[in-house]
Amino acid sequence: TDAEVSTRKKTFTEVQTERLEQAERTVLIKCPPKLNERKLLQYLSSHGNIKSHFFFENRGVHALIEFSEKNSIASLKDAIGIPSSEHHVPFKSRLFTFTLKNPVSQAAEETPVRLSPQSHIPVKELIQKLCHADSISSQMYILLNEYQLTEENTKLRFMACSLVQDFARAYFPDSTVKPFGSSVNTFGKLGCDVDMFLDFHDVRRHATKMKKGPFEMEYQMKKLPSERLATQKILSVIGDCLDNFGPGCTSVQKILNARCPLVKFSHQPTGFQCDLSVSNSIAIRSSELLYIYGCLDSRVRALVFTVRCWARVHGLTNSVPGTWITNFSLTMMVMFFLQKRSPPIIPTLDQLKELADEKDKHVIGGYDCSFVSDLSKIKPTKNTETLDVLLGDFFEYFGNFDFRRNSLNLRKGKEVNKPESSPLYIWNPFEQDLNISKNVNQPQLEKFVAVARESAWILQKEDKTQRMISKEPWGLAALLIPFGKSNPNKMKNRMKGIGSETIRSLLDSLKLNNPNSLQKAVGK
Q: Where is the Poly(A) RNA polymerase mitochondrial-like central palm domain positioned along the sequence (predicted)?
């Protein structure tokens, strides 16, 4: 839609700022299962104009209400009562419970409200939907529409951050809590976690402004031996705060000795699993880079969502950390592939850096993280390949990639010799001495290659006339059924057809029946 296009063209920072401001004008209300929507909105409107609202299901019905003015919330808070039970923490958040005083007399007017979905459909249902499409391209767009974050779900994510920010501001009044990663980079799928960070940068910017003039004034602040220790102490206190006083914050875990210290918690009112860290500038630059790639061409997101769904179905990715390829690595592999098309579909990071002006210059910890933020400065691609072609070629490309010798460099958009012997080497786009796929072991990479080759083979054998008659899953739908499940004999025959001993022995080794092969696969 036009509205979507116009929001797509905003810079990453503009979108973030707008959403954070929107969240500060928003309240979250737990409602009875049936209610008179008109009466609820009428009551709330007495405190100010309602700009938007929606209902969703999460351990009961909830309403997210966005007011036009922030002071409407103060007016509403003045009229709200405190729970009658004696034992509660007197912290007044923007989470409210709405109940009917006389449910019986009002029952006639109550109707179930329209609920906005907050999770995607199961793969089985998706496969049925895909079978009715008329091309692989349209199958990929159907998958994208089913899996991508909705407007409502995005608002809910920013609301979760805003509620945590209310706690942080009790200690640090100028701080902000912002989402990063999949919630904001245009590649988030319904149900993914919310990564959020506590940002003090606005405070630091304010400090630099004060340095002009004939004298200097600065705050007295507690000194600590290192920034890491400061981060750990801040997160420890905020974690305790959420645990002890945060309505609906459960399963709070403080993981303070990790490379990037964080607090994990479950936010029951919104239904999200959340990870809170302290300002991680490079992670935010990565989010913005992906945001730009996702906005440049609609094929980019369709291909990423498809490849990620395919990888999950075949057990190539996993929600638990381990030796498999992560979603981030997989996304970067798709980006690299799109940079290598002729003509390229997306520019390299070095090309985006050349377009950067003074305000786009960012050097973080000695790493140059500069690239253009204004999307209108980037020339649209002249590449017109269909998604049908791109999907088949993606599997073909990585099914035959020389992983032993080459690595993927997104700054240059080139395969370059591996600097060290990790099975899969993808250069971190910003911290150029790091490999973002260092966790991946040889058996997992070989499994990826085998499944990519098998998928390329299925797509090449695709027969349009056949699929009309057979009614069997075709195209993308056929790729979303774990191989060997639909027809195990077909898979065995195909392995003979390929005539490649390596793939056959590989698939056997992946069964990992005995402890020795398991030991080899996982390594020490």
A: 136-294
Angle at 479 between CA 474 and CA 483, to 5 degrees: 115
Within-domain flag for 157: no
pLDDT tens digit string along 447-500? 999 999 999 999 998 766 556 666 789 999 999 999 876 544 444 444 443 444
Return left, alpha or beta for 186; rule: phi > 0 is left, psi -120 to 50 is alpha, else beta.
left
pLDDT at 408 > cutoff 50 = yes
Q: With respect to residue 290, please indicate whether it lies within any of the assigned structural domains.
A: no
d(CA 175, CA 29): 25
Distance from C-alpha of 273 to C-alpha of 250, rounded to nearest angstrom: 10
Q: Are 97 and 29 in contact (CB under 8 A)?
A: yes
**Which two tokens mark 340?**
């290598």
Centre a 10 Å sphere on the Cβ of residue 292 and count the other Cβ atoms it contains: 22
Q: Does residue 19 lie within any of the structural domains?
A: yes
How many domains is the chain built from?
2
**Residue 61: closest CA among 114, 120, 121:** 114
CATH number where 423 lies? 1.10.1410.10
Rounded to whole angstroms, how far apart are CA atoms 233 and 166? 18
Backbone dihedral region for residue 275 (phi beyond 0: left; psi -120 to 50: alpha; all else: beta)? beta
pLDDT per residue over 429-457, tens digit each?
A: 999 999 999 999 999 999 999 999 999 99
Q: Is 431 exposed, middle or buried (0-12, 13-18, 19+ CB in 10 A)?
A: middle
Torsion of CA 287, 292, 298, 299, to 10 degrees: -70
Cis peptide before 122 (omega within 30 of 0): no
Question: Which residue's structure tokens are 């608002």?
Answer: 155
Task: Report the SS3 class of residue 49.
Answer: coil
Tell which residue, 222, 230, 221, 294, has the closest CA to residue 256. Answer: 230
Largest CA distance in the chain: 85
Question: What is the Cα–Cα distance from 339 to 417, expressed in whole angstroms?
Answer: 18
Q: Which of 80, 97, 114 is the last residue of a domain?
A: 97
List own/partner pairs for 50-53 with CB under 8 A and 24 or more apart: 51/25
**What is the residue range of 334's domain?**
128-133+297-461
Tell me whether strands 194-199 and 272-278 are parallel, antiparallel or unpaired: parallel
First to last CA, the chain: 52
Query: What is the pTM for the complete model shown?
Result: 0.88
Pairwise pLDDT comparison (213 vs 272), residue with the higher score: 272
| Helix 281-296 vs helix 12-24: crossing angle, to nearest 10 | 110
Q: Amino acid letter at 395?
A: F
